[in-house]
Amino acid sequence: MVRFSVRMAVVALAMTTASLGLTGTAAEADSGHSGGHHGSSHATGWYVALGDSLAAGYQPKVGDDKTGGYVGTVLIAEKRMARKTKLRNLACSGETSTTLVNGGRCGYVKGSQLDQALAFMHAHKRTTRLVTMTIGANDVTPCLGAADQNACVQQKLTTLGANLNKSLSKIRAAAPNARIVVTNYYNPYLALYFSNPALAQQTSSLQMALNQTIAVVTTPYGTTVDVASAFQSYDTTVVAGVPTNVGVICRLTWMCSLSDIHANDDGYALIGATVAAALPRIRSHRH
Questions:
Q1: pTM as predicted
Q2: What is the rounded average pLDDT of the residues 201-208?
Q3: DSSP string of 217-283?
Q4: pLDDT tens string 124-139
Q5: Which one of 113, 171, 187, 283 has the fewest beta carbons within 10 angstroms of its own beta carbon?
Q6: Is the pLDDT higher at 189 or at 285?
Q7: Do 199 and 206 form a contact (C-beta atoms < 8 A)?
């Protein structure tokens, strides 16, 4: 793991103060109802979306969009296969894997996002058909400001691995018919290229370690969808004086215009299309 400099920590934390420190209130929202049972008798299946601000569809100056973002695109794709599919989006902006399991970030009747999701899935055991999750970036981002970044990353990834394994194993048990999809992450900090290209390149090590952890833990339970590749995260081919991966981040996120890590409309559309493209070939697998 590459050690991050103090300068990188200061710049990166300044960029993420507004976006990763989002406040969250009751995140129990779906595509038309807030009750766990209302309308379920008319549904052929449920799509449950879990995770952090990317799953919540957050954009600066707008806030969360739990029926939009990438989840909205995935829902449209799922409805092409099962017309009456309904959405339950329980995502929480600012969520870490620890708060997802234990609560404390957003308000849930059951105490945590995971427990709220499990309660819903137990109530809809046969009809929960798809679960997507985006979690982990908020676990490791604080390491950019740590005195020993390497030790911090190792500890945070160990915690992420344990929490993700716990979450996915419980989801698999609660929703045995569901396809489970976990997205990995693009690297918004490539935008540091314009102030320090070497530091921007170094952030790829953190992205790779995070995404590797997500993939390894997800494999026994479901499918990892490669958002990093969709965003051309490792393509350093220079086009018009700018590396391709940097140009993609500027085009698909708010980093270069507002210093905000979140995807814009085009970015969310690409994440959604990447997940949607994987759906036809993903089958539920029982244990």
A1: 0.86
A2: 88
A3: HHTTTSEEE-HHHHTTTT---EETTEEHHHHHHHHHEEHHHHSEEEE-HHHHHHHHHHHHHHGGG--
A4: 999 999 999 999 999 9
A5: 283
A6: 189
A7: no
